[in-house]
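Tip: read the tokens left to right.
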């Protein structure tokens, strides 16, 4: 059941403006729908800003004390607190602390389960939409509580780096259970359900590994015990549960938030005399090195969400748009990477920057395993005669040609948020 066009824009900031700029069209039975420009869009323009239908922080990320708002995923640590934890330097002091936008005095917790929110507005929105179903009350340390058992089971099956979360599925159920108009929300979620049974099984296999059959049955049992609802009985059958699994696996958009990243961006924008600029840049460079040594690549509060309009964007290995989260919360900004003409399809990349530089065969391998399709973008079509090298073979060739690297150059992941 397809949602009307108006519903596709319902979670955007200024939906009227967005609907005058872009439209969703059905392309064909293989690609499904796509997002197309209705007018000229300039490089650097924000195409739209959208909040998710549902989102959730990754469970290991939360367990490792990456503190995020229980609703909007805004990082709750101040930039200085974040830097101290990531570097392991308790007395670290950041210059220009006034550039940090985190406001601890506004933070509120659920009075029953103590889940923390960045504001009373987020706490109330969560309670109104889904949290009353998911609140564990005083049982947050009770390993036998159905919600806790479900989360523990997921963590034991899906280790970092995390790509999805059982709690995204749980919030889908909770939203429908709490909604007065249950059919409306089911209609919105149906926008993401477009996989065949074989593809759903393949996605479950990818997320949970070789022993997924037994794991999936256990998760389904725990999911049902914690959240069963008659209105959603199909989601709790083996086929329906596998469909939900495939839905979050193929449509979930990663969300990263960081108060430290926001502080770094604010520092970059400061107008400073030459020597002060050099000192600040040197401080930030050393900060990155200290974080890399102590923490590695796990820098952000990480989670995933389901975005209705953004989900209509198809993949290209040479994208003309990209998603980012510059507000340090779950608001997705889709921005143009190049000029886009009226009638042109707006495509993002499902691959990161490094993956996009791999061979065609390697890119296809990643996309088949994670998104269950074969890319036919202009770049892939132009490289059809390339040798079929996998990522592993490419890495071996690079290592032989260049030798071992010393790791001095570190990618600045904090500023990618």
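Filled-in amino acids:
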């Amino acid at each position: 059941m397809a949602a009307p066009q108006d519903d596709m824009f319902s979670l955007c900031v200024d939906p009227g403006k967005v609907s005058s700029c872009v439209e969703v069209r059905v392309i064909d039975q293989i690609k499904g729908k796509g997002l197309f420009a209705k007018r000229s869009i300039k490089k650097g323009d924000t195409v739209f800003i959208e909040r998710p239908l549902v989102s959730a922080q990754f469970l290991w990320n939360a367990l490792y004390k990456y503190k995020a708002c229980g609703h909007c995923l805004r990082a709750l640590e101040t930039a200085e607190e974040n830097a101290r934890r990531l570097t392991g330097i308790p007395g670290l002091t950041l210059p220009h602390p006034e550039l940090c936008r985190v406001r601890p005095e506004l933070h509120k917790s659920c009075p029953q389960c103590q889940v923390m929110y960045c504001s009373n507005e987020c706490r109330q929105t969560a309670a109104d939409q889904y949290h009353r179903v998911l609140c564990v009350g005083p049982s947050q340390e009770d390993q036998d509580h159905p919600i806790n058992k479900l989360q523990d089971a997921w963590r034991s099956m899906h280790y970092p780096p995390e790509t999805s979360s059982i709690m995204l599925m749980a919030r889908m159920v909770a939203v429908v259970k709490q909604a007065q108009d249950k059919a409306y929300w089911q209609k919105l979620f149906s926008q993401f359900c477009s996989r065949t049974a074989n593809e759903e099984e393949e996605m479950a296999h990818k997320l949970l590994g070789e022993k997924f059959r037994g794991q999936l049955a256990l998760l389904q049992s725990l999911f049902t015990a914690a959240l069963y609802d008659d209105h959603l009985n199909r989601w709790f059958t083996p086929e329906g549960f596998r469909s939900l699994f495939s839905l979050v696996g193929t449509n979930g958009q990663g969300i990263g938030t960081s108060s430290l990243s926001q502080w770094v961006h604010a520092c970059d924008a400061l107008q400073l005399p030459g020597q002060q600029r050099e000192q600040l840049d040197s401080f930030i460079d050393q900060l990155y090195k200290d974080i890399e040594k102590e923490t590695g690549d796990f820098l952000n509060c990480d989670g995933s969400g389901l975005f209705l309009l953004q989900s209509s964007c198809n993949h290209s290995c040479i994208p003309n748009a990209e998603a980012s989260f510059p507000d340090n919360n779950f608001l997705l900004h889709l921005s143009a990477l190049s000029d886009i003409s009226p009638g042109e399809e707006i495509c993002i990349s499902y691959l990161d920057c490094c993956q996009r530089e791999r061979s065609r065969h390697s890119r296809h391998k990643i996309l088949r395993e994670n998104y269950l399709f074969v890319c036919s973008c202009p770049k892939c079509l132009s490289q059809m005669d390339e040798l079929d090298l996998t990522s592993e073979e490419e890495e071996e060739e690079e290592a032989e040609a260049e030798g071992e690297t010393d790791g001095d150059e570190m990618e600045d992941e904090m500023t990618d948020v």
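The longest strand covers residues 22-28. The longest helix spans residues 274-294.
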